[in-house]
Each structure stands twice: as structure tokens, then as C-alpha cells.
Design brief:
The structure is a homotrimer of 138-residue chains. With 138 residues, the first copy, chain A, is α/β, with parallel strands linked by helices. The first copy, chain A, has one domain: Hypothetical Protein Ychn, Chain: A, CATH 3.40.1260.10. Chain A starts with a strand and ends with a strand. Chains in contact: A-B, A-C, B-C. Chains A and B meet through helix 2, helix 5, helix 6 and strand 5 of A and helix 1, helix 3 and strand 5 of B.
């Protein structure tokens, strides 16, 4: 059985979405299975209407957003979305949407980008995360 | 011996307190023991005077605070406090206050809400967290 | 073989740098090896020009920054930097700079404070983190 990385993707800022996608890619490179549980703002950033238009960076480092976006463009760094999509193509990466958050928002699976594989509850995620070698709350 | 989830509760915003209480509930549902180490702002939000009045959300998503609070009220979603209290009633969930933070603030156990079981140092928490299947820094 | 704690240091605010250094110290006290992977803003805060001048606190609790800084000064609390340095002297703590972030910023190892032991990629960090008892994303 492959080792497993479990990520709670709570935040939805571009910088943390990037961090999550990079950690997931690192997991795939090391042959790990990766589970991402998108919840709260993280799930919100995966709504169809938000997924391509999100330019929000952490307020803590707001003045770095512009320069970083520019450098990423210059160096043709793939976006978090392309990163994550590629990780899913190369390895066993699953993105689970938090059903409680969706219900609170009055939304259904179809309101989210198809990068989300399924919706599930926190207990299901926790059950699988117990068998992870790496767990991260991002 | 039951599996264990260890949470460092560093942040004290309502959204992250909610996330911590939901993760703890998920752990209890899966039969895990849960240890929460409340430190920095997380411990501050557990002061008697703050515990019922905290409406602070992450600045990163500030405009979502109002709508989310309203939706949670409409759907009668329990607060993070009620969530956490219920998790403590249903399972083996302990909340430890960081003694170093309390000392820095000039506060004692009695200044905090009784949802905190005891005060302890970081080494004690780390010692127990080593035997956890899931560790999260929230 | 000693137990291991692996920390992704993503944030670069003083409060989270402090939290990372305290967790690392706790790990050392418990005889653990500690690996810190400094990336994004965390790595930026370790640039030679930033390491001694950073006074940035989380925007979420901005009004607490002044009072906390004052209390830490009054009680002679060591800075996160001194904390981390001491943890490195007392135990097996390694700080790895994220090579991808450095490359994006057009920087080299020599642009960072010598508290960084080496630069490495995310896959190398993940490989080692798989064998950790505690993994934290800060």
C-alpha cells in the first residue's frame, strides 16, 4: 500500500492554494497517495465562478502579491490549478469537497469545478487521514 | 489504545475555532482521542471575557464573515463552542492551555473558560503528539 | 533512530515564526530530530535583510502586536531567532530553504541568513517528512 498525504485545504488564497498544490505534487513525486479535503474558503475558491478569477493573496503579505504574480508570469510558473491538475494526472490525488460547507452555502457538487472528485463529510476524511504519514492543515 | 489526533490551536478567529471544533468532532466520530493545545491567539480566544463575544473572522476573507454568520444562524449551525463542548461530552477530547502564553500575558488557568482542562508546556504536548496519527496546526 | 518533527514554515509573520521556533524547541526537549522547510513568506523572512528587522504580525490580530511585543520585552522572552538558534545548538534541527521559492525570487543560498542549512526541493522534504511522527504546516 502506498504512503498517504492528507491535506485539509481551509484557506482559499492563491498563495495557500499554490502551497497545497506544491505539497501534493511533492507527494506524487514520492509515490504517495494524496487526499485533499477542501473546506471553508478553500472549497469556496473551487466554485466554478471563482476558480479562474481568484487573485486574493494573504492580507499578511499583501504588498508581495503584485511582485510575486509578476515573477510567476515571467518565469512561466504554472498556476496552482494547473499544478494540481498535473498532479492528478501523474498520481493518485483526490480532491474531496466538504459536504457540510457546501450545505451551509446552499451549494451542490455541480456548483464546483470538476477538479473536485466527490463531496464527503469530515468523519470520512478523518478516517482516511488516520492512515496518513503526513497530515497538513493549510 | 485509541488512535489520537493532536491539534495546535494557534489562531483565534471564529472560522478557525470552528474548523478546530469540526476536526475534533470528526476525530471523536472515528473513535479517536483528541488533544487540543491552545496557544497564542487561540488561547486568548478562550479567556472568559472573549469566549462568548468573539466575532473576529480571518482578514483574508473578511467580506464573507457577515453572510456566513447569517447562514449559520439560519441553519441553526452550532457554534464552535457548542461543537467543542459536545465533542468533549461524546468522546475523549482534552483542551490544554499553553502555560508559556498564559505566563507572558500574566494570566492563570482561572482567567480562562472551564472548557480548558489544564495548562501545560509545549514539551508535554509534543510528547503526546508523537503518538498521534493526525497532527494539525490551525 | 530518533523520532522526527517536520515543519513547513510557509508564513513569515513574527507570531508564526515564534510558534515554529517554540514547536521546534519542544521537539528538541523530547529528543526529536526537527526539519523545517522554509518556503514562500517564511523563506522571505529569512533573507539577510529581513531577519533582524521583521516586526510583521498577523493582520487577524493586529491590535495585539504592540502589547505582545512589549510584554515579550518586559519578560525578556527570547526572539524566535534566538529560540531557533538555541534549538539548533541543543538538538538536531535543520532549516531547509525551498529552492523553488528562491529561484522564483531570483535569490541564492547566500542571500539568506546562515540559520538556513541548505536549499532543497519539496520532494526531498516530503521524502523525509514521511518518516515523521509530527508534521505541521505553519
Amino acid at each position: 500500500m502506498a504512503n498517504r498525504m492528507s491535506i485539509v485545504l481551509f484557506s482559499g488564497t492563491v498563495d495557500k492554494m499554490m502551497a497545497a498544490s506544491v505539497m501534493a505534487s511533492g507527494g506524487v513525486m514520492m509515490g504517495m497517495d494524496v487526499d485533499i479535503f477542501a473546506t471553508f474558503y478553500g472549497l469556496n475558491s473551487l466554485r466554478k465562478e471563482n476558480v479562474g478569477t481568484n487573485t486574493r493573496f494573504s492580507k499578511d503579505f499583501e504588498e508581495m502579491a503584485g511582485p510575486m504574480m509578476m515573477m510567476m508570469k515571467q518565469k512561466h510558473t504554472p498556476s496552482w490549478y494547473d499544478n494540481l491538475k498535473q498532479a492528478k494526472e501523474l498520481g493518485n490525488v483526490k480532491v474531496h469537497g466538504c459536504s457540510m460547507t457546501a450545505e451551509l452555502m446552499g451549494l451542490k457538487k455541480d456548483d464546483y469545478d470538476p477538479i473536485i472528485d466527490d463531496m464527503c463529510g469530515v468523519a470520512t476524511f478523518v478516517d482516511s487521514a488516520q492512515n496518513s504519514q503526513i497530515t497538513l492543515f493549510i
